[in-house]
Design goal:
Chain lengths: ~240, ~525
């Protein structure tokens, strides 16, 4: 579903991501872990076509992000860590706009918006301007918008930040349900317990380089993800 | 602390003007020179206008018993310019700035935040005041005998006058925000108020000759009104004319006491004002059948939605639209007089439709809806970049939005002008086609310029709509294009082609340029857009 090959991204002289390679298969929930400034967001933004990268390539369903970014973006949904949405729109107008961009027909969008708004308890607030929303509500709206076109690959940067416990639970359910249908989820998080419980695979990066990746049980072994993470980070330091 | 915050604001202001957001590097030498030339051109233009007005006033009141009225009137004009120029900036900058809450969370007194912001507005007001008062002072010195004490008082009073305007702007800015937030159509109220101010300003500009005649004829009565009701300006005038120390002190008190009072009241309630939830009435969602639209339609609708959502954006980017309609209406109402003016200027009735068309184009050059359209994306830029749309689709939608919101007014003004001129079909078409071609060219030019000069780190939208290089370059660039085309015809082409043919040629040229810019957006522009980072 997503193949990252030797991804390198520099900001001036600083190399933010250095030769990173990952492979996320259909049906997998893939956790991406690293300390602040490790290169997680840069990697995610490169995958989503927001950032142009300097080396390597990224393939979504076999299509290169460099060669055909639009085809790749059609398969992806991206949820950033800080959802700055169009505050001049109401939530329903924003969802309609997103559905138009992804070419979702009227009946399907109505059904999906209605379903996910119900799940996240947002139905009554859909007519409100986004400017009146709290951070959590914006996050929920960004999630609903991401689900409107039923993406094959969901890419999320710290998706649980700002969500209440019920919304977090609902999002995890949705992630599992999507993977059961052969879709894939790639997300970054600092909440290691969540990653350990939720993810099929885990990758840990440090200083832009991949430290370890593999099936969660293989990475964690007999210890906990927290211990593994701290051990790897300390060892590298 | 106030000084630190003030320095921060000024650094932000300078960085907005001279530092590239793409590279973080300072503006190149050639760009700085171009910018300086533009600023000098602007200053000379406005100062020249004000000097002309001052000469008329000086002739009228110099040497009379109420010569002080000259200074009182220029002070009143400077005051109005400061007030109109800063009222919406005050509303957005003092009460709606994005970083207000961030600053409140720091160990900074709310009063310091307020004062630092007021100082920035004061600096802006100095710009407005100096444009009026420096030429007025020079004109008086050249044309009338000068008292040393008067000059000193004039300089001191000039430095204090912007404070008076700032006080009123702060109060009105707060009142507009308060009133509009209580009403259902917040944006409509703000827009209505802004249009009313703009209308009053235009009315004054268009009828200042009549206004001046009336002033001169009723000088004594006007002087009495100033003495009785507009006493700050009366004292400004008295002090500036003869160096009357008591009048200077009274004027300083008139400016300082209200400022201190307003500052004290705002300071006490500032945290409450800027964090107040103005309680928009909750709108309950009722599911309705949804309709789908194509990608381009969705993008254009989004652009129009953003434009219509901000009265400040609408007003500042579309002043030319109002001018076009006002011009059409004025031509219809004062047909005889204005036609005579056009005939005198162009040397015959045959040229009038083409001349009116050129005048409409000049108005169009002041419409810069697309010029800040990339910058206003700000922190939302990630949305468009993560969506499956090409950079060209995004940029084209911005230019199309410019055309969609401007062309209907071009139609209305062309119809009004056609009726006023009793134009035939060909002439009527001229009145629309040339402005329409200018609109299309301007739309694409604005997007192209904004791609080269984007500004994403704005604290208030006002910074990219009012104070950005892309808006200034597009507006003055378009004005220069229109002036060059008119001069080219008057100096060269009129010997070779008719005015009608020239309009046709210019229409084709402008459309061609617009087409070329659109092609550039497809490749080069799109590449730049992909590399932008909000």
């Amino acid at each position: 579903m997503l193949r990252i090959e030797n991804l390198t991204k520099k900001y001036g002289d600083k190399t933010a991501v250095d030769g990173l390679s990952l492979h996320i298969r259909p049906g997998e929930i893939y956790g991406f872990i690293g300390h602040n400034g490790a290169g997680k967001t840069t990697t995610i933004k490169s995958v989503c076509g927001i950032l142009q990268f300097d080396g390597g390539d990224i393939f979504v369903n076999g299509v290169s992000v460099k060669a055909d970014p639009i085809a790749c973006k059609k398969e992806i949904a991206y949820i950033p860590d800080n959802p700055d949405l169009y505050e001049f729109m109401s939530a329903i107008k924003y969802l309609n706009f997103v559905a138009d961009i992804y070419g979702v027909d009227a009946v399907t969008r109505q059904e999906r918006i209605s379903r996910y708004a119900q799940v996240f308890g947002m139905t009554a607030d859909l007519a409100q301007p986004i400017s009146s929303y709290s951070h959590g509500m914006k996050q929920k709206l960004a999630i609903i918008a991401a689900l409107v076109h039923d993406p094959k690959l969901m890419i999320m940067d710290e998706p649980f930040v700002g969500l209440d416990p019920k919304a977090s639970h609902d999002l995890k359910e949705i992630m599992r349900e999507k993977c059961a249908r052969g879709h894939a989820v790639f997300f970054s998080t600092h909440v290691l317990e969540v990653a350990e419980k939720l993810c099929d695979n885990i990758a840990i990066i440090r200083g832009g380089r991949l430290v370890v990746s593999g099936r969660t049980e293989d990475v964690v072994g007999d210890t906990s993800l927290e211990e593994v993470f701290l051990e790897l980070v300390d060892a590298e330091a | 602390m106030v000084l630190t915050l003030f320095k921060l604001r000024m650094r932000e202001f300078v960085s907005n003007m001279f530092v590239s957001k793409k590279s973080g590097k300072a503006m190149g030498k050639s760009s700085k020179i171009a910018f300086a030339v533009l600023m000098v051109f602007l200053l000379v233009m406005f100062a020249g206008m004000m000097a002309g007005l001052s000469v008329s006033l000086c002739f009228a009141f110099g040497g009379t018993d109420y010569a002080w009225l000259y200074f009182a009137l220029v002070a009143a004009m400077a005051f109005m310019l400061c007030f109109i120029g800063s009222i919406f900036a005050a509303m957005n900058y003092l009460y709606k700035a994005k970083d207000n809450e961030l600053l409140l969370a720091m160990p900074i007194k709310p009063g310091a935040i307020l004062l630092s912001r007021m100082l920035v507005l004061l600096v802006e007001n100095y710009g407005f005041a100096f444009i009026v008062l420096i030429p007025a002072g020079i004109v008086w010195c050249v044309m009338q005998p000068v008292a040393f004490g008067g000059v000193v008082c004039y300089i001191i009073a000039t430095l204090v006058l912007p404070l008076l305007a700032l006080t009123l702007s702060c109060v009105f800015g707060w009142l507009i925000m308060l009133v509009s937030s209580k009403l259902k159509s917040t944006k409509a109220v703000t827009l209505l108020f802004a249009v009313a101010l703009f209308g009053a300003y235009m009315w004054f500009c268009s009828s200042w000759v009549t206004f001046l005649e009336k002033l001169i004829m009723n000088g004594e009565a006007v002087a009495a009104v100033f003495e009785k009701y507009l006493f700050p300006f009366y004292h400004f005038g008295k002090a500036s004319l003869s160096g009357d120390f008591l009048s200077l002190v009274l004027f300083l008190l008139c400016a300082a006491v209200p400022f201190a009072a307003v500052y004290f009241v705002l300071k006490t309630n500032y945290a409450q004002i800027i964090t107040a939830n103005r309680g928009e009435k909750k709108r309950k969602y009722r599911a309705k059948a949804m309709r789908s639209a194509g990608v381009r339609t969705a993008l254009v609708k989004k652009e129009i939605g953003r434009y219509l959502s901000s009265p400040m954006y609408m007003l500042n980017a579309s002043a030319g639209v109002m001018l076009m309609v006002i011009m059409g209406a004025a031509l219809l109402i004062n047909r005889g007089e204005l036609l005579m003016v056009f005939e005198v200027l162009t040397g015959g009735t045959d040229f009038v439709p083409a001349a009116v068309s050129a005048a409409l184009c000049f108005c169009v050059s002041m419409v810069v809806v697309s010029a800040p359209s990339v910058s206003v994306e700000g922190k939302n830029l990630w949305l468009l970049k993560s969506m499956p749309v090409s950079g060209f689709d995004v940029l084209d939608a911005k230019a199309l939005c410019h055309c969609v919101v401007t062309l209907p007014f071009a139609v209305v003004s062309a119809i009004l002008c056609a009726i006023a001129l009793r134009a035939n079909i060909w002439q009527s078409l001229q009145l629309f086609t040339l402005p329409a071609a200018t609109i299309i060219f301007c739309g694409y030019l604005g997007v192209a310029v904004n791609l080269k000069f984007p500004k994403f780190d704005w604290v208030s939208e006002v910074h990219c709509v009012k104070q950005s290089a892309s808006v200034a370059i597009t507006m003055f660039g378009m004005m220069a294009v229109v002036i060059v085309l008119v001069v080219l015809y008057a100096a060269v082409l009129r010997f070779a082609v008719s005015a009608d043919m020239c309009v046709l040629i210019y229409t084709v040229i402008l459309l061609g340029l617009g087409f070329l810019l659109r092609r550039w957006l497809k490749k080069g522009g799109s590449r730049i857009f992909e590399s932008l980072q909000g």
